[in-house]
Amino acid sequence: MENNGHEHVIEVTDLRRVYGGGFEAVSGISFSVRRGEIFALLGTNGAGKTSTVELLEGLAPPAGGRIRVLGHDPYTERALVRPRTGVMLQEGGFPSELTVAETARMWAGCVSGARPPAEVLALVGLESKAGIRVKQLSGGQRRRLDLALALLGDPEVLFLDEPSTGLDAEGRRDTWELVGALRDRGTTVLLTTHYLEEAENLADRLAIMHEGRIAVTGTPAEVTATQPSRISFELPEGYFVGDLPPLGELGVTGHETDGRTVRLRTRELQRSATGLLLWAERARVELRRLDVRSASLEEAFLGIAEDASAGRATGTTTKEYAA
Amino acid sequence: MSTVVKGAALTTPLSRMTALARAELTLLGRTRGALVAALFVPLVLPVSVRSAAREMDLAEAGLNTGTLVLPAAVGFSLLFAVYSVLVGSFVVRREELVLKRLRTGELRDVEILAGSALPAALTGLVQCLLLAAGCSVLLDLSAPSAPHLAVLGLLLGLVLCAALAAATASFTRTGESAQVTPMPLLLVSMMGSGMFVPLELLPDRVASVCELLPLTPVVTLVRGGWTGDLSGAEALGAVATAVAWTVLAVFAVRRWFRWEPRR
């Protein structure tokens, strides 16, 4: 009952967002995030990630569907939700003429139970920049200031829209460590990213969005498991796919050819690769540009984008085998 | 089950607006151009009103130089130190995505606008008090005979100008256009709201139209506060006009105010 509401800190059902011009940015998505979980929304630009997060933050009412954050509607019951959430927008939003310390002090005055501003600035490594005007900060430093302000009120739920965009490798690592530590203390985190590495490293569960819908959701391992492993190589002149051993017997579930390049999909990578290489050895054929790779989040991600455009591709033949 | 409540005290609208207003005050101090216009124009323009006054038959309207210049000065202060400054700051904060960022927090929409407007409104208030003191000394202005009307007029004027500024910002896209969009109200008010020429000296038909302009009730109430010539009905009419404009401006803000830039 009520416990359920606490277990699922964020619940989204059939969520839709339509902009003024009639463009539907979010087309009926559902997911839920449990307490103390890091949930990542992955997707290419324009997939609808930010449009979704803005609705969860309560910045706009949805065109359809239902959102519950900590058991409340974030738009109509904002006074109940806001003191318990922290938000980092995709892009800053600080007066350029204020110093870092002044900005933090202003936010602290608007946040219930705010920690001392100096403490959160130190947390993101900005303590030495306290006296600097915001306009003089680098893009990465601005992202860190934004993160510091999102953490001011020790929020139960944290919304991070592309938290590490614009950060260098070290800054990204630091941010991951910080967000991981927050999760360990029980903070629920919803973040968007287009860095697959970020989702793989941080997220307990994730959803890949494409054109306003959720294409696939689950733990990184589950999402990866939805994807086949891949083998690709070039056949020498005079050889054709028909010359290969029967692909179904090698455990291959599908293949594509593009000129001389052959791509195989398989769920039994070792068996397929062994069969292929043994054939090549016997036939004394050199497979140029041989590439054997296990399924990864990247494959899943690219696979989803590919699936969407597969129908439009020309010059590529695709064949699926029954499982 | 247990309700999760944070141990720490919640913020109040007042505490939030104070924090925001403090930051806006700092920003106002750092925006040199706006500051100069806000502080000096309302001090300089009354001088030209005073020279214009020499051409007028003030006695016929029951006025003297002081009761002509002071209400005009209050009007200038409201227009330049409050209205124009706020149009610019609302638009710039929107462009910088500050308004959007503020809306993700605990501040409610009305608190964001009111808190941002507070420093300019205070500047206007202090400026008007200084102008009143200055006019009393330099223009031999006697003490106001109905001070409550003057105070009421000034307070209505501050709220009205803040609301009109937010309404104007609704139709202003960029910081550059914020230099232009306040012009219509500035010009109309200076011409028609009894600042350069008291309504008493205008033809009746023109005067009755001018009475309905946004800033006329403010000028009328402040002037009436000093002369004591305002009847109860006239005062009530002026208050009603000012309130009506404020309501209209608030309606426009609720309907059209944009919290983030167009993309």
From TrEMBL, chain A:
Q: Where in the cell is it found?
A: Cell membrane
Q: Which residues form the ABC transporter domain?
A: 10-236
InterPro entries hit by this protein = AAA+_ATPase, ABC_transporter-like_ATP-bd, ABC_transporter-like_CS, ABC_transporter_ATP-binding, P-loop_NTPase
Single GO MF annotation: ATP binding
Entry-linked Gene3D superfamilies: P-loop containing nucleotide triphosphate hydrolases
Membrane topology listed for this record: Peripheral membrane protein
- Top-level taxon of origin: Bacteria
Q: Which SUPFAM superfamilies does the entry link to?
A: P-loop containing nucleoside triphosphate hydrolases
PROSITE patterns attached to this UniProt entry: ABC_TRANSPORTER_1, ABC_TRANSPORTER_2
Alphabetic keyword roster: Antibiotic resistance, ATP-binding, Nucleotide-binding, Transport
- What PANTHER family does this protein map onto? ABC TRANSPORTER ATP-BINDING PROTEIN (PTHR42711:SF17)
This protein is called ABC transporter ATP-binding protein
**Organism, as annotated:** Streptomyces olindensis
What phylogenetic lineage does the species belong to? Bacteria, Bacillati, Actinomycetota, Actinomycetes, Kitasatosporales
